[in-house]
Predict the 3D structure of the following.
Amino acid sequence: MKKFLYIAAMTLLLASCTEDFKNWADPQSNPQGQVVTFGTGSVASVGVIDFAQIPDSVELVKVCDITAPATNDPAYVPEYYIYLNGQPYVLNAEGYMDAKELEALVVSIYGQAPEVRTLTAKVKSVMTDGTTATTIWSDEFNVNVIPDAPVISSAYYYIGSTNGWTACDETYKLDNGGGDVYANPVFTVVVPAAYENGVRVDNWFKIYPQATMDLGVDNFWSGNFVGYAVNGENEMSGNFVEGANDEVAFAFKIPADIEADKYRLTFDMMNRTFSIEPLKDLGTPDLWYLVGSCIGNGSWGNSAGNEGIALIPMYPQTDNYSINTYIGYFPAGQGFKLIHIPGSWDEQWGQKDGVFVKNDGGSSDITMPEDGYYQITYDMEMDVLTIMKYTGAVNVFSMMGMPGAYQGWSPESTLMNAMSTVVENHDWIIKGATYDATELKFAANGSWDINWGGSGFPLGIGTQGGPNIVVEAGTYDVIFNDILGEYYFIAK
């Protein structure tokens, strides 16, 4: 077990308490009138407990020094408990408690950041002979603890082949979704492939923290970097190291023969792991739309310009644009159809003799057998339409905002419009929104309690508390389905 550095001992008197003294006055318990006395003991605080210096195999950690209260009756044996911020834990006679319980308490109160955290402590000594007992409390003292965690920077940046190894360049800043980096330690960024003379080349790169950025261009390369531990590696996932440039941390490499237009770089700064995901250009999504008595305003108005009013767009699968998906609420017996081009009935899906049919002029509306949530999937390559009951958990929201850097991150403003007005709504839209390059999220009911973020653009799957969505400058119709979590910024 590691040696602890003790600060000057602070002696704290153990004062008697009367709460358990009733047995001493009972003549039946002490027929000879025996008097048991306890001498003064003490508790001394110890130095800072740094869990980074304590091996995982160590089960107990010293939190104080105890001088036991003396007694004239050896039958009385002390039992000890330490109260940390009011919570009791078992303590042995040498002042040791369960190491994992101590660190878990500190993390639950203060988080994982490796900083000195102070707990208010009191020691309770229960002097007992197995029949009668008295309780003695110490005065308050402090227990100082540093959780075991790596130092995580407030920000990280890419430097490499894509940006010409330009120092102090913020173009490819990694994102963790905002907030405490110890609560959200996973940072991501999407970078384009590297080219020379029109030919894709190996993409060499490193990641560096804010402290290195702050050194400026002149001293940049004397800072710390995130990279491979061994020069020449080219793994697409694994563990990384952080340290001096080309002494501790060597450049990552994405081989040119891994064909992709972009790469998503993901770094888990708590667990010190990374992954590199190739992203191929899937082209432009091809949308289909729902229209019907239970869709949008229920008017069956299929004309161009009715998107988000009488027409609800389906959502492209993020890794396969030939598949459109939709999840929403459908009342039993109310009809709808799928159409491809607003303003035209030429391409449509309906129902005939209980079977889904395409471009059949005699087809009826599609209806659901009972009220509920349904998932509709249309695979354009296979030309197959499927509809099935959706059994996942569903929330209903009264409003949906798009808070972001462009408007001060206010979840109560920049509200989207509900697409469905005749049935329960789960689709939201803003038309013709113009943005400079910015970051934003989706947030429900004017609060941050439920919010969606994601790394994809112009479309992606938002997750609770996910990273900020990095939006490229432009004008968009923005659609969002709060069951799928999918969003799509449709360029105008």
Remarks:
- The helical segments are 99-110, 210-213, 216-219.
- The chain has four domains: 12-146, 156-279, 289-389, 400-491.
- The mean pLDDT is 88.
